[in-house]
Design brief:
The complex is a heterodimer. Chain A is an all-beta fold. Chain A is about 0% helix and about 55% strand. Chain A has no helices and 11 strands. In chain A, strands 2, 4, 5, 6, 9, 10 and 11 form a 7-stranded mixed beta sheet that branches. In chain A, strands 1-3-8-7 form a 4-stranded antiparallel beta sheet, with no helix packed on it. The termini of chain A are far apart. The chains are: A mainly beta, B mainly beta. At the A-B interface, strand 4, strand 5, strand 9 and strand 10 of A face strand 5 and strand 10 of B.
């Protein structure tokens, strides 16, 4: 089956530093990947849509300069949280949409803690 | 913005009981998906329904898509402790984006 690998699974960083999260589709190509944020006991909130070879589309209220998205290939998208602050602490999840059958597969998530 | 109202938010039941989770919207979706999420992990797809009125069964889980493709339900028969988790519905819009419902946190007590 389709697998999406998300790395790292957990990361702790200091305030003011940047953190990069990778999302890879292992056995399929994904023209489009999505980045979500999930607070404790809440549902997933879409942050941005990442399209291979073009700029990401950000949802209202999401700062594009703070959450940098790069989708340089059909199997890799990265989310960089720049100048992280404690309020950025959350569970970040990526999803890849299959080019062939348009199904969605989610990564296992990244727990970010900013101290 | 398309919204999906999911209910109930929390459900605590005894093993063997039946339950239904509802997902409602005023918008029409091209498809509706149900996911289950364990703590600290990403959502795992349970089923996708596409056709209005469609019913799909997955062992003790029955999924239904409303005739107008605006609502859906998940029914679990004879719930077991292993069914405990967060259940999420997600509607796919014409823009190929998923809109998630608020989630239903289910706890099945032995």
């Amino acid at each position: 089956g389709a697998v999406v690998s998300q790395h790292p699974s957990r990361v702790i960083c200091k305030s003011g530093t940047s953190v990069k999260i990778e999302c890879r589709s292992l056995d399929f190509q994904a023209t489009t990947m999505f980045w979500y944020r999930q607070f404790p006991k809440q549902s997933l909130m879409l942050m941005a849509t990442s399209n291979e070879g073009s700029k990401a589309t950000y949802e209202q209220g999401v700062e594009k300069d703070k959450f940098l998205i790069n989708h340089a290939s059909l199997t890799l998208s990265t989310l960089t949280v720049t100048s992280a602050h404690p309020e950025d602490s959350s569970f970040y999840i990526c999803s890849a949409r299959h080019t062939s059958n348009y199904g969605y597969t989610f990564g296992s998530g990244t727990r970010l803690t900013v101290v | 913005t398309q919204l999906l109202e999911q209910s109930p938010q929390f459900l605590s039941i005894q093993e063997g009981e039946n339950l239904t989770v509802y997902c409602n919207s005023s918008s029409v979706f091209s498809s509706l998906q149900w996911y289950r999420q364990e703590p600290g992990e990403g959502p795992v797809l349970l089923v996708t329904v596409v056709t209005g009125g469609e019913v799909k069964k997955l062992k003790r889980l029955t999924f239904q898509f409303g005739d107008a493709r605006k609502d859906s339900s998940l029914h679990i028969t004879a719930a077991q402790p292993g069914d405990t988790g967060l259940y999420l519905c997600a509607g796919e819009s014409a823009g190929n984006m998923l809109t998630f419902g608020g989630g239903t946190r289910l706890m099945v007590k032995p």
